[in-house]
Amino acid sequence: MPKSHYERLAHIREVLDAVLRSQPVVELPEQPPAPRAEAEARDEPARRAAATFLIAGLGNPGREYANNRHNVGFMVLDRLADRLGVQFTRLQHRALVTDTRFRDHKLILIKPQTYMNESGQAVAALAKFYKIDLENLLVVFDDMDLPLGALRIRPKGGSGGQKGMKSIIQRLGKQQNFPRLRIGIGRPPGQMPPPAYLLQDFSYDEQTRLAPVLDTAVDAILTFVTDGLEMAMNRYNGMVGE
Asked: Would you say the pTM of this structure is higher than 0.90?
């Protein structure tokens, strides 16, 4: 007897079911989620690119102090501004200020005009104004405990007796957890009082030695901005040229 239309459909369905049952089932593996460390590493460049960095060089305002040992922080900031093609064109919160971008990072460069001992007035006010995270604040200053030609970057610490740093720490609410770049100027000779030594100009020979130190300090600052504190410390801590 000829099969009805519905019987033929049922037969076809049975044949298809049999064919499908005879085929092996292949399960596609699930894509594992990216490990947390990998995800954070991918996000790190974007996080740093979005940050704003405040770079403060310490010194005393005025031509009579321009070449003093105590003004080496200003010298580094001037060299940094030259490298970046900017000038200090405005006065803000008692500091000379300029800003620019470097490889997508925003940099605010400042030279407090309060005289060294009150540097914290300007640094703290500008850090608050620009909402700077302390990890993105870098202070550059002279250090008599390091020989001329030495650089030392540290993530935190006390003032080490440097009165500008002491003022900054006090004005930041006694916070010490911010990076600093110390530029060695050496100890005063003989019985010369430290204040007299600090306010004395670098000699001609010292200026010759100082030039590559300033350039290397600028390299260290830009490395800190683009690659982080650890990289800057590993690469630049020590005597320049050795």
From this structure: no
Per the CB < 8 A criterion, the answer to whether 151 and 220 are in contact is: yes
* 3-state class (DSSP) for residue 63: helix
The verdict on residue 5 lying in a domain is no
242 residues of the chain, pLDDT tens digit each: 455 554 664 555 564 455 445 555 444 344 444 455 454 445 545 555 568 999 999 999 999 999 999 999 999 999 999 999 999 999 999 999 999 999 989 999 999 999 999 999 999 999 999 999 999 999 999 999 999 999 999 999 999 889 999 999 999 999 999 999 999 999 999 999 999 999 999 999 999 999 999 999 999 999 999 999 999 999 999 999 87
Residues 143 and 203: their CA atoms lie apart, in Å, by 17
**Structural tokens at position 187:** 């100890």
Residue whose entry in the numeric block shows the structure tokens 């030039």: 211
Q: How many domains does the chain have?
A: 1
Residue 196 lies in a domain: yes
- Catalytic residue numbers read 70
Residue 73 is part of a domain; what is its CATH number?
3.40.50.1470
Q: Which domain, by its residues, includes 77?
A: 44-239
Asked if residue 193 is part of any domain, the answer here is yes
Report which of 54, 74, 81, 145 is spatially closest to residue 115, judged by C-alpha positions: 74
What is the 8-class DSSP label of residue 132? -
Decide if 9 is inside a domain.
Answer: no
For the chain, strand residue ranges (E) read 52-57, 90-92, 95-102, 105-112, 137-143, 150-154, 180-184, 238-239
Q: Which of 71, 124, 113 is nearest to 90 (CA)?
A: 113
